[in-house]
């Protein structure tokens, strides 16, 4: 398994994982099926924010899904998934399984069906803001965890399995957060995925002013700056 973190221009690719130990040969049937599947996911995700599909038969069958952040425009979703479809083949050439994360989307494929199943360990990455919270991290961490837990509850019951909000956690600074699951998950699995990623966020980004955790099924993020379009947010005092 290969883990790399990269940046490509304004449409930023954050991370990717080449997750399969199996490979295919250039121009074989699996590659043709994979390219057809990626094209299908690009087209379908634009209008729905989420899509999944399978293509091929037997050992040449491939399965994949794509997810866009719940509040972005269809044009931004299309741009992100199109770029992800191109980059995932470049970053994981001839690999029969891979996942790639952008700020605005997630794309994943595998040589075995993975729909509705939790993937918390194999495809996982976290990124933390380099700056620490100015004071009292021991008080700060529980507040951010509670904030994210509330977001998770909202996401689980939302039709898109997505939620974002902002809140004053310390009476002064405004925090922004989001939580999202891929919509092949059940509500129970979405809740499990988000709760686990929030625990990982609290552990890996302890006392930091921001951070994110992504898996193949869900993602959570909080920051002390508005990384989500202000017009889409609802204000909540805490």
From TrEMBL:
Q: A single Pfam family, by name?
A: Stress-antifung
Q: Where in the cell is it found?
A: Secreted
List the InterPro entries hit by this protein, alphabetically: CRR_secretory_protein (IPR050581), GNK2 (IPR002902), GNK2_sf (IPR038408)
> Where does this protein chiefly localize?
secreted
Domain Gnk2-homologous stretches: 12-114, 121-227
- Cellular component, GO, one term: extracellular region
Q: Which UniProt keywords apply?
A: Repeat, Secreted, Signal
The cross-references to Gene3D superfamilies, in alphabetical order and at most eight, read:
Gnk2 domain, C-X8-C-X2-C motif
* Annotated family: Belongs to the cysteine-rich repeat secretory protein family.
Task: List the protein's name.
Answer: Gnk2-homologous domain-containing protein
Give the species this sequence originates from: Fagus sylvatica
